[in-house]
Amino acid sequence: MKTVEQQDQQLLIQQRRQLIGEQVRLGNQIRALLMEYGLVLAKGKASLARIPELLEDGENELGPLSRQILQRQYRRWRALREELAWYDRELKTQAKADDTCCRLSELPGFGPIVSQVFKGWIGDGKQLKRGRDASAALGLVPRQHSTGGRHVLLGISKRGDRYVRATVIHGARSVVQRATRKEDALSRWINRLVQTRGYNKAVVALANKLVRMAWVIVARGERYRPAVV
Questions:
Q1: Handedness of CA 14, 133, 130, 222 (dihedral sign)
Q2: Alpha helix ranges (H) inside the chain
Q3: Could you list the mean pLDDT of each consecutive 10-residue stretch along the chain, which spans 229 residues?
Q4: Measured between alpha carbons, how far is 39 from 64 in angstroms, rounded to an integer?
Q5: Which residues make beta-bridge pairs with 150?
Q6: Cα(50)–Cα(29) distance, rounded to whole angstroms?
Q7: Helix (H) or strand (E) segment spanning residue 150
Q8: Closest residue by Cα to residue 167 from 9, 7, 26, 20
Q9: 65, exposed or middle or buried, with CB in 10 Å at 0-12, 13-18, 19+?
Q10: Taking the model in full, what pTM does it have?
């Protein structure tokens, strides 16, 4: 049974997730509309900032009505961004006031938002026996295929909550990107993995490791202690 506070935190995360989906869909609709008039925007939120410039350009193929529609769509997109910013600020405020989230935030790649999302998913962690069970529940362990006494490891199972898994992997990706400029034990491990297994596999392997450590922090009340070599 969840407390009212836990339900409120999950509601905050769910609404933020919904807003992100709406923002992505609306951005894609705007790009598709522009393509009908021969105007191509790159992927990403940054490219949508060019819309006011396109609306003011009188030499493109946009007509009066299409300019009005685009302007209204762009205002909706900006409103979604402002609404999403409020949810991000609220999540960060909630994380700072929560002891578990503060300890999770000490993990590499676990900022306030990732910590809140992970804690909302795992609860107190007591339903799991070990960190590997948390990784398995989130779909970050390899699938296995056994035949004739042979055990073959395939890609990750991708079970569990897709949004939580994507959030943790996104945090892990930021750590891998910065690892090339660092010399600590974790960064050296990441860089070796990138060289031997490739960038994407290194990101997933790090996400797997981080989830196991995060379970220890939540279920056992411990703090992150970086390895010293």
A1: negative
A2: 4-35, 51-56, 64-96, 99-104, 112-122, 131-137, 162-179, 185-197, 199-220
A3: 78 91 94 91 88 89 92 95 94 90 92 90 87 88 54 54 90 93 90 91 92 93 79
A4: 16
A5: 147
A6: 15
A7: strand 150-156
A8: 20
A9: exposed
A10: 0.79
